[in-house]
Design goal:
The protein is α/β, with parallel strands linked by helices. It folds into three domains: 247 residues, Rossmann fold; 183 residues, Dimethylsulfoxide Reductase, domain 2, CATH 3.40.228; 103 residues, Beta Barrel (Barwin-like endoglucanases). Helices cover 27% and strands 20% of the residues. It has 18 helices and 28 strands. The strands form eight sheets. The chain has a six-stranded mixed β-sheet with strand order 5-4-17-16-15-6, covered by helices on one side. The protein has a six-stranded mixed beta barrel with strand order 21-27-24-26-25-28. α3 runs parallel beside α17, α4 crosses α14 and α9 packs parallel to α14. The structure holds ligand MGD (2 copies), iron/sulfur cluster and molybdenum atom.
């Protein structure tokens, strides 16, 4: 391995770690303040992955060249508008979108929305114009960190390390690692976060803690927002949110005259009205005056490419379909890159049925669950053999990747595949790799604060509890320390509270309006009663989830569902 070279962790993770090769070993960089010399277990697992060594066509091993010919011929003989380009987030380097450039020019259908952060992102955009996190220094300079629907110490372990001595408050139905480290844990009922945000705003007003200067000079609609908070008697929130008023008082006492940060995660927005819910939380933050202070602020999964011009983008008139609702069977050819929709997309049964009825190309580093349904598998080169730049959705530092290992035979990078196809079809060429990488390396985005905050002024959210029967369970999913979405060490259990009446190792059948699947039970006090918890990557969970788009952002809403559980 070449020494003194950079390696960016390619994985979909807030931390976007920078590594470097030292004496033939890959080590976390000490110069990157977030990475701070350490990498995680998932990085170690990534290095040990059994990457594809040959291409596969109709279950037979073939060479890379043969696979590229089959792909070109198939694309030439298929109507472009009957093809779909589907990109997952297995590698988040900027060079990954080279192929999207080709498929845009070719005329494929593309996807819109997200399986991840789309709803919440839209909510922030509606209030502040763009989804941008404050500089990480402001998090480090705060006194109190409210962790809202995010498993902060697990899903961004490096960001957590920078602030681990702060006082934490966690709002989560599950007793997560960070909840156990918190001074207050509000074990909230699922999909009631907007109610808690309204209640907290009401208490903020009752205790004269609102930021009058911000409300007068930097915002619009605060009175309308405050009106919504007054719609209901204060005590009625206790039953619906499951959060005692005493804890609400405790939180406000804790934050009074303190520098406050709120780190919001996916958990609050895996629902139909995810954007409205996020906007309520951001509005509470605005009301309390968390924005525009020297320290503190609100963090979410920011738009990591904000302020950069996409060097691989090309304008096209391509049709776009919601990624949550993709019907793979309606295309003659489906090209899947860096994704594993058989496990990660909602409604596994319809995903599999769809894939069985289309010509499926998987462009991937490893033979994943989706490859089982592929006609053609093209091996992507390892991240160690690709030049790239990794931007972060957690903080403002970028990571750089040089080539530290020669690409394995019969593998190809995303950039080279795109270049090859573009030349085959005589399309407009890509910029050179040097030019693209230099642009991202040399461009610094200066943080600009939003001008004015727009409060949410109307609310229309249908709570899940309204339709929940006493035998129903809420579906909750969250990331695991030992896996990265569907990659690495997968846990297929359903986790239930002891009050569920089930016991360890029970075989249960779980049913939802969208499908059913069998699971083995693990009992845990950490799970709130009436919740069924599954780690992300569980091979069965998405048999239960709706392949429908949320209200406004075309994104998935994995938790907009109620479950029935019985012994099987
Ligand atoms: N180790 C590891 N790290 C990862 C990943 C991984 O797979 N493994 N995945 C990466 C990716 S792709 C992403 S997007 C990020 C996401 O990272 P996070 O934002 O932390 O997302 P999740 O773990 O999905 O969910 C966060 C929390 O929301 C809680 N929750 C669920 N429903 C509700 C609710 O209604 N209200 C509230 N208040 N909380 C709720 C869950 O219990 C969970 O603890 O993590 C990244 N980092
Ligand atoms: N029920 C439920 N479902 C969820 C979630 C949840 O919390 N609960 N989380 C959602 C979230 S936040 C996300 S982000 C999505 C993630 O969903 P996906 O984007 O589908 O991610 P993975 O399932 O991890 O699959 C990534 C694949 O990319 C491949 N890969 C890795 N590196 C490269 C590379 O360099 N090049 C190429 N071509 N391929 C590569 C790997 O082999 C791996 O199989 O899942 C979503 N699905
Ligand atoms: S913490 Fe995240 S970015 Fe850092 S090495 Fe692990 S997976 Fe990669
Ligand atoms: Mo994600």
């Amino acid at each position: 391995m070449n020494s003194n070279k950079n390696v960016a962790c390619p994985m979909d993770c807030y931390d976007a770690c920078q590594a470097e090769v030292i004496d033939d070993n890959i080590k976390g960089s000490k110069n990157n303040i977030v990475t701070n010399g350490k990498l995680c277990v998932n990085f170690a697992q990534l290095l040990k992955e059994d990457n594809l060594k040959t291409a596969i066509f109709e279950n037979k091993e073939i060479t890379l060249d043969e696979s590229l010919k089959i792909l070109s011929n198939k694309l030439k003989s298929t109507e472009a508008s009957n093809t779909l380009f589907y990109k997952g987030s297995g590698n988040l380097g900027v060079m990954q979108s080279a192929t999207k450039n080709f498929f845009t020019q070719y005329g494929s259908v593309l996807t819109k929305g997200s399986l991840c952060d789309g709803g919440g992102g839209l909510g922030i955009e509606q209030g502040r114009g763009a989804v941008v996190n404050p500089p990480i220094e402001k998090l480090i300079d705060s006194d109190i960190i409210i962790v809202w629907g995010r498993n902060f110490s697990v899903t961004s372990s490096h960001m957590y390390n920078l602030v681990k001595d702060k006082t934490f408050v966690t709002i989560d139905p599950i007793k997560t690692d960070i909840a156990k480290k918190s001074k207050i844990h509000m074990q909230i009922n699922p999909k009631t976060d907007y109610e808690l945000a309204l209640l907290l705003s009401r208490f903020t007003h009752m205790q004269d803690m609102e930021d009058e200067e911000f409300l007068e000079n930097h915002s619009e609609g605060a009175e309308w927002f405050f009106d919504i908070t007054r719609n209901r008697p204060v005590v009625s929130y206790e039953a619906t949110t499951g959060v005692p008023l005493s804890q609400v008082n405790e939180l406000l006492e804790l934050v009074e005259n303190k520098k406050v940060s709120i780190v919001v995660g996916l958990g609050i927005q895996k629902y139909f009205e995810g954007a409205q819910i996020m906007r309520c939380i951001d509005s509470f933050a605005a009301y309390l005056g968390v924005h525009k202070k020297d320290s503190g602020g609100v963090w979410y999964l920011s738009d990591s490419s904000f302020g950069f011009e996409n060097q691989l983008k090309i304008e096209g008139k391509n049709k776009k379909v919601s990624v949550a609702q993709v019907d793979f069977s309606s295309y003659d050819l489906v090209f899947i890159q860096g994704g594993n929709p058989v496990v990660s997309a909602p409604n596994t049964k319809s995903v599999i049925e769809g894939l069985k009825n289309s010509f499926v190309v998987c462009f991937t580093t490893t033979y994943n669950d989706t490859c089982e349904y592929a006609d053609l598998v093209i091996p992507s080169s390892s991240f160690l053999s690709k030049r790239d730049v990794r931007l972060s959705y957690g903080h403002e530092y970028k990571a750089i990747s040089d080539i530290v290992e020669e690409a394995k035979d019969n593998t190809i990078s995303e950039y080279n595949l795109a270049k090859h196809l573009i030349s085959e079809f005589g399309f407009k060429e890509l910029k050179s790799e040097d030019e693209i990488i230099d642009y991202y390396k040399n461009t610094t985005v200066v943080h600009e604060e939003f001008e004015s905050f727009e409060f949410i002024e109307e609310l229309d959210i249908e709570p899940l509890y309204k339709h929940k029967t006493s035998s129903n369970f809420y579906l909750i999913t969250g990331k695991s320390k030992n896996s990265l979405n569907s990659q690495f060490t997968i846990d297929n259990y359903v986790y239930l509270n002891p009050s569920s009446g089930f016991k360890n190792d029970d075989n249960v059948k779980i049913t939802s309006p969208y499908g059913e699947a069998d699971f083995l039970v693990k009992i845990s006090e950490d799970i709130k009663d009436q919740c069924a918890f599954f780690y992300t990557g569980n091979k069965k969970t998405n048999y239960l989830t709706p392949n429908k788009a949320d209200e406004e952002s075309f994104s998935a809403m994995f938790q907009e569902v109620l479950l029935e559980i019985e012994l099987s």
